[in-house]
Amino acid sequence: MNQHVLVIGAGGGIGKEVVAQLCDDTKVGTVHCVSRSELSKINDKQISYAFDSTDSDKVKEFIADISSQGIRFSKVICTTGVLHTSGDMALKPEKRLEDISSEQLTEYFRVNTIVPALWLKFLVKVMAKEGASITFFSARVGSISENGLGGWYGYRASKAALNMIVKTASIEYKRRSANTALACYHPGTVDTNLSKPFQSNVKPGKLFTSQFTVSQLLSIIDKFDTEQSPYYIDWEGKKISY
Question: Is residue 65, in this structure, part of any structural domain at all?
Fold first, then answer.
């Protein structure tokens, strides 16, 4: 069986590692990679597509093309997200109310929440009927119940909104794509550009390599049960409270 998987945000630090490990997985036949720019090819399993996922029309066209080929995805992993930079725009996680700005909030939600919502909108038509999963990279700081420190208003709120989008979509997916599990995954603090400005505050042993958190994720995905969907879990597979 030629198992098709899709990686969204395949050009990022974690995204590239997701692609690498999937390309090395003997159970996977084809790895479809979406990123803003062209990617280096790892092996013949990899098919790359370069376009901006914030453009709804581009996502719609991509899914229409996939559907016309009769392709159905068994796994979708979306690694997109912003914290302190987004393209040429510098973002500064807010430490107090006075730091909040409409421009920053808009950008956080545009990338962290709206992009995943657009993909959920179109992916429902192309998921494998025999069993599939869609996983979005979220964050523990998106938990409303666990927020005891405050700050980071835009990032926290956009990830909390992502969690709600996924939770709400899971109800509709149970009707329209019954064998698809949805998940929000907290990868821990990973040694990538996204976490660079904040790594000095990370406890020893808690700064993970992208190889580690991706291998953890892929092992967890294989255990998903659609009856338990949606998942909001960390890198250990432990449940996080909304």
Answer: yes
pTM (2 decimals)? 0.92
Number of domains in the chain: 1
Distance CA 169, CA 30 (A): 26
Note whether residue 135 is domain-resident: yes
The 10s digit of each residue's pLDDT in 13-69 is 899 999 999 999 999 999 999 999 989 899 999 999 999 999 999 999 999 999 999
Lowest mean per-residue pLDDT among 91-95, 156-160, 186-190, 223-227: 186-190
Please return the burial class of 81, using the count of CB atoms within 10 Å of its CB with bins 0-12, 13-18 and 19+.
buried
- Chain position carrying tokens 């690694």: 79
> Could you tell me if 34 and 8 are in contact, meaning their C-beta atoms sit under 8 angstroms apart?
yes
Which residues span the domain enclosing 94? 4-234
Q: What is the CATH number of the domain that holds 133?
A: 3.40.50.720
d(CA 176, CA 111): 26
Backbone angles phi, psi at 25, to 5 degrees: -85, 120
Residues 214/191, Cβ–Cβ less than 8 Å:
no
In a domain, 240, yes or no: no
The answer as to whether 239 is a domain residue is no
**Distances from the Cα of 129 to the Cαs of 29, 33, 77, 210, 226, in angstroms?**
17, 21, 17, 30, 12
